[in-house]
Amino acid sequence: MIDVEIIEAKIDIIFTNLSYLAQVKKVDKKEYLDSYEKMQATKHSLQESIEACLDIANHLISEQGWVRAETYADMFLRLNEHNIIDSELKDSLSDMARFRNLLVHRYGAIDDERVWMIIQENLDDFELFIKKIEAFIT
Question: What is the pLDDT of residues 54-112, one digit of tens each?
């Protein structure tokens, strides 16, 4: 059975982080790149938001009895296969899941310019994800 409280708690995490990220989005790019604190807080906020999306996806996959995802990116594929999210959102969130792995495991240097581009271009994907999840659980 889907636990709506768990999902709502994860959505709250995403909204809290989106609030911070929306402020950073308005900052001049040079100011952002010159601020170690802003860059670190942005990376952490993105990581927490991505992980909350993954937690929601994992909860739905588990509770619905769908085929287990082999990777974090595949969790969004499962949601797409069950018509919760469209292919475009699946691709964007899958890319973010892979980016989350870079942040967490430090497979290489994190490109701060890429982080800047994510907050400029992809924050709406989190909000769209939330809308799709809320539509599915209600």
Answer: 999 999 999 999 999 999 999 999 999 999 999 999 999 999 998 887 777 765 577 88
For residue 18, the enclosing domain spans 4-137
Q: How far apart are CA 44 and CA 58, in angstroms?
A: 21
| Nearest-angstrom CA–CA distance, 95 and 102 | 11
Alpha helices (H) in 1-138, listed in sequence order: 4-25, 29-33, 36-64, 72-81, 87-105, 112-121, 123-137
CA angle 46, 47, 50 (to 5 degrees): 85
CATH at 109: 1.20.120.580
Number of separate domains in the chain: 1
Measured between alpha carbons, how far is 81 from 58 in angstroms, rounded to an integer? 14
pTM flag (> 0.90): yes
Residue pair 39/33 in contact (Cβ under 8 Å)? The answer is: yes
